[in-house]
Amino acid sequence: MSSATTMISLCVAVYRDHGEPNLASLQRDLPAALAGQAGELVAALNGIDAELAGVSAGAITVDLGINRGVAPAWNAAARAARGEILVFCNDDVKLGSGALARLAGALDENPRAGVVGPLGSRWDLAGAKHLSWVKPASADELASCDVVSGFLFACHRETWVEVAGFDERYAPASWEEVDFCTAVRASGRECYAVGGVACAHEWGVSRRQPPWARAHWCGRSETWRSIHRRNRRRFLQKWSEHPLARAQTSAGGGA
Q1: How far is Cα 132 from Cα 54, in angstroms, rounded to an integer?
Q2: Does residue 242 come out as left (phi exceeding 0), alpha (psi in the -120 to 50 range) or beta?
Q3: Can you tell me the distance from the alpha carbon of 192 to that of 89, in angstroms, rounded to the nearest whole number?
Q4: N- or C-end of the chain: fewer Cβ atoms within 10 A?
């Protein structure tokens, strides 16, 4: 377990109001999830006002004015946060007792840990393809993975700074956490799926949309099919020839 004096910042991007779990329930769950550690909620408002988003007293807010997308919102929240540990969370997650303290402890107790979260996956980086899920077999396990799922994950602030945050070219959404985890691994750190993180993900706002549905951000409108394809191409251009991908290919499979 990390020290109780280590500040944990829960960074959440919000773009619409919806039923629980939501930002309001996250803020209510925060004290139990921190399990005695210092913490704060930082809400990045993507084109929604604080009252409609459900922001309560005590939270830090960053108003982006319009919906700029996930990566810009997470970066804005991280810049406003005061914590040494940054936790990035969707607003459709239910946090259980000790959830954030468990993630902080996994980071602090494992010097090689760069990104940790409750669910991971293995990827074919050269082909930009998801291969399989990685789930810890026990509450004590840290299972090595290529990518930590984006609904809930944590890193030290210095890790976020070292890789220059999230690549905002993946806005409005899709591939930003895959790119971030790959950048962290390329810096020499590791990604782990952590057992014993009490949480539930409702897959509400983060549910994959029909390919013909449209996203609206920064005054633009684009189908999700186009967004996914564009961001996959960007990932391939950025990483398919990187030593991580070449080493994976030489080994004959996922890392």
Answers
A1: 36
A2: beta
A3: 16
A4: N
Q: What is the pLDDT of residues 186-225, one digit of tens each?
A: 999 999 999 999 999 976 545 667 878 999 999 999 999 9
Determine if the peptide bond prior to 31 is cis (ω within 30°): no
Q: Which range of residues forms the domain containing residue 61?
A: 8-251
Which two three-digit tokens encode residue 6? 């280590």
- CA dist list (Å): 255 to 122, 125, 144, 213, 252: 7, 9, 9, 34, 9
In a domain, 2, yes or no: no
- Whether 145 is in a domain gets the answer yes
Q: pLDDT tens across 161-172, in order?
A: 999 999 999 999
Domain count, the chain: 1
Burial class (CB in 10 A: 0-12, 13-18, 19+), 103: buried
In a domain, 189, yes or no: yes
pLDDT of residue 21: 94
What CATH number corresponds to the domain at position 16?
3.90.550.10
